[in-house]
Amino acid sequence: MLFSSVVGHSKQLGIIRELVEKGLFPSTTLFCGPEGVGKRLIGRELLTYLTGSPFSVREIGLEKPPTIEEIRELTEWLFTKPTEGKGKGALIDNAELMRSEAANALLKTLEEPPDYAYLILIARNEEGVLPTIRSRCRVFRFGRLSDANVEYVLERLGIDYDKRAIKVSRGSPGVALKIAENPTVLELLSDFVNLMKSKNRLKEITAFSSKFSNLSREETLLFLDSLEALLSQKETILKWADKIEEARRFLRFYGKPQSVIEWLLIEKLTF
Fold first, then answer.
1. Residue ranges making up the domain that contains 35
2. At residue 61, what are phi and psi to the nearest 5 degrees?
3. Taken in order 17, 24, 142, 219, is the CA torsion positive or negative?
4. Beta-carbon neighbour count of residue 148 at 10 Å?
């Protein structure tokens, strides 16, 4: 059965199944919603079903935003008629982070896709997707899962986890899994709470930020996501939200984790 391995999203999956059964599923769609809630899993399973073969599906943008070269290669592949299965499918992740030249190259494909092709774009932020691209896609919005569903996913995967990982995952099994695999994030959150309680916290900023000297950007982004989730349970999130988002942008544009965290703390604790 289609989507038998997917947890949650019953309403959205019901609509998709009905469209597929009636042969009305659109050729270009946008799956948007929080990170790690299953958008990619659903897209991958759906494209395999629609094309009839996993070998007829290609994915780009999984680790970083798709480049214009990747879009052009994907377009060339899509416009070559399939030799097996019922068609071809393309899954394009990080769609909202594409540079303008890549987005414009994709737009040409979306305007007149081959009749045997299906394109699924994936984005965390729907509004971040170029409006001309968004207008050519049927949009499916996926929300956060319940804590119980997140726990079920981790247990089904046989993952040992700290209950705190569930609390700061904000309904995202993918994020909870990353935190479970990176326990340092929970340790840093505890250290952050202690820092906030300290009477000498301004003097301790450097010591705290130095703990990020050996962390990757991905691990630091995970910490920022978890910190935002932690603070969202308190009114203090209103004071931190904008700066946390700025810190994310600095990291994505190759800022050093230690420097970015030190900047964030100085901005919030000295102004």
1. 10-141
2. 80, 15
3. positive
4. 11
pTM summary value = 0.85
- pLDDT higher than threshold 90 for residue 271: no
Q: Which residue among 141, 172, 193 closes a domain?
A: 141
Residue 191 token pair: 């250290």
Same domain, 186 and 137: no
Give the Cα separation of 37 and 166 in Å (integer).
Answer: 13
Round the average pLDDT of the chain to a whole number and report it: 91
92, part of any domain: yes
Mind giving me the DSSP string for 208-252?
HHGGGTT--HHHHHHHHHHHHHHHTTSTTHHHHHHHHHHHHHHHH
- The residue written with tokens 């019901």 in the block is 14
Q: List b or e across 57-72, with b for residues whose CB sees 16 or more CB atoms inside 10 angstroms.
A: bbbbbeeebbbbebbe
Between 63 and 131, the more confident residue is 131
Query: Which has the minimum average pLDDT: 4-13, 211-220, 249-258?
Result: 249-258
Tell me, yes or no, whether 198 and 137 share the same domain: no
Query: At 88, which CATH number?
Result: 3.40.50.300
| Total domains present in the chain | 2
pLDDT, one tens digit per residue, over 193-224 is 999 888 888 889 999 999 999 999 989 999 99
- Do both 98 and 198 map to the same domain? no
Asked whether residue 160 is domain-assigned, the answer is: no
- pLDDT tens-place string over residues 138-188: 999 999 999 999 999 999 999 988 889 998 999 999 999 999 988 899 999
Distance linking the first and last C-alpha atoms of the chain? 56
